[in-house]
């Protein structure tokens, strides 16, 4: 599968996104990946991209994406077909009624987390919390219960993820 596990010599905090593979997911379930995280390895995400996860984030913008656009990101989060974020989260999007209460308020996310941390949480929240209910927005392998129309595809594109991250970064005000 992939060179997950320890390929010694790498900085302990450097992980690649290999936990997206089923075998890696199992070992991730043994303990919160973000905390343990001593293993380094290649994590394969959608497409042939390998993303380097450092500490608990993805520092570099996703491949192929231009700088994120916060206004577009806000629209993606508000969109009930695309992001579905408001199914679970509340956020400072007052025009959208019936927001979720299953997850933290997105308000303040830009103060609580760095861009790298936000990026990882959108790409694959299970890297941080193996038991999360939050969908992995940029992952195709190791997923179960995927609708036929989504098989082999990510929920969001790299550009959409960068846009969402850009908007989340603007949310500096603490939640009420
Ligand atoms: C099915 C429910 C669900 C959906 C849909 C969802 N999330 Fe989440 N999200 C969660 C939960 C639950 C957490 C809390 C941490 C955990 O359990 O993984 C979380 C955590 C987060 C965090 C970290 C929150 C914090 O400050 O601690 C961010 C940021 C986030 N989600 C953004 C998003 C965005 C943006 C979308 C849409 C693109 C989204 N989420 C869609 C359930 C969801």
Automatic annotation (TrEMBL):
Pfam families: Cytochrom_C
InterPro entries (alphabetical): Cyt_c-like_dom (IPR009056), Cyt_c-like_dom_sf (IPR036909), Thiosulf_SoxX (IPR030999)
Domain of life, per lineage: Bacteria
Signal peptide: 1-29
Location of the Cytochrome c domain: 68-172
Keywords: Heme, Iron, Metal-binding, Signal
NCBIfam families linked: thiosulf_SoxX (TIGR04485)
Protein name as it appears in the record: Sulfur oxidation c-type cytochrome SoxX
Species in which this protein is naturally found: Duganella margarita
């Amino acid at each position: 599968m992939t060179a997950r596990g320890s390929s010694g010599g790498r900085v302990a905090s450097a992980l690649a996104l290999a936990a997206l593979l089923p075998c890696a997911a199992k070992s991730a379930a043994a303990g919160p990946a973000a905390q343990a995280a001593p293993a380094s390895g290649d994590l394969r995400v959608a497409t042939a991209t390998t993303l380097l996860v450092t500490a608990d984030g993805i520092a570099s913008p996703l491949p192929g994406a231009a700088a994120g656009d916060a206004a577009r990101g806000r629209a993606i989060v508000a969109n009930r077909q695309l992001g579905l974020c408001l199914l679970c989260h509340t956020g400072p999007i007052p025009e959208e009624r019936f927001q979720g209460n299953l997850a933290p308020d997105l308000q303040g996310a830009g103060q609580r987390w760095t861009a790298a941390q936000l990026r990882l949480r959108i790409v694959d929240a299970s890297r941080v919390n193996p038991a999360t209910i939050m969908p992995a927005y940029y992952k195709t392998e190791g997923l179960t219960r995927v609708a036929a129309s989504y098989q082999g595809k990510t929920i969001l594109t790299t550009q959409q993820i960068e846009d969402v991250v850009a908007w989340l970064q603007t949310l500096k005000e603490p939640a009420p």
